[in-house]
Design goal:
Arc Repressor Mutant, subunit A, PadR family transcriptional regulator, three-stranded antiparallel beta sheet, single chain, 5 helices, Metal_resp_DNA-bind_regulator, alpha+beta, Tscrpt_reg_PadR_N
């Protein structure tokens, strides 16, 4: 079963930044396929959410794009800027803290304080 797009929305930028941190550069389709394969199909990045996120990250100065022609086809590669590298660490830490808090909220029995 795939993860809901609503859950993915708030984490998409952090996921993209982290993947670009671990790779020299990636293009859009490569990002979608990596996420699909890494999550065994549980997270599917759609073009309609991926490319607006990439464009926003680029507008914010966190990533840069480079057009590379392969034959007659153009492929746009994305990579982190120095500002993006700093932002990635902050975003990943913030997301991990948030996930820990959510885990506590949904696994604690409010009546008794434990599960």
């Amino acid at each position: 079963m795939a993860i809901s797009t609503e859950l993915l929305k708030g984490t998409l930028s952090t996921i993209i930044l982290r993947l670009l941190e671990n790779s020299e550069r990636m293009y859009g389709y490569e990002l979608t396929q990596y996420v699909k394969e890494s999550t065994k199909g549980k997270i599917l990045l759609k073009e309609g959410s991926l490319y607006p996120a990439l464009h926003k990250l680029e507008a914010d100065g966190l990533i840069v794009s480079e057009a590379v022609y392969i034959g007659k086809r153009m492929r746009k590669y994305y990579s982190l800027t120095p500002k993006g590298k700093v932002s990635t660490k902050k975003s990943v830490n913030e997301l991990l803290d948030f996930l820990n808090i959510i885990e506590q909220l949904i696994t604690t029995n409010p009546e008794y304080g434990t599960t």
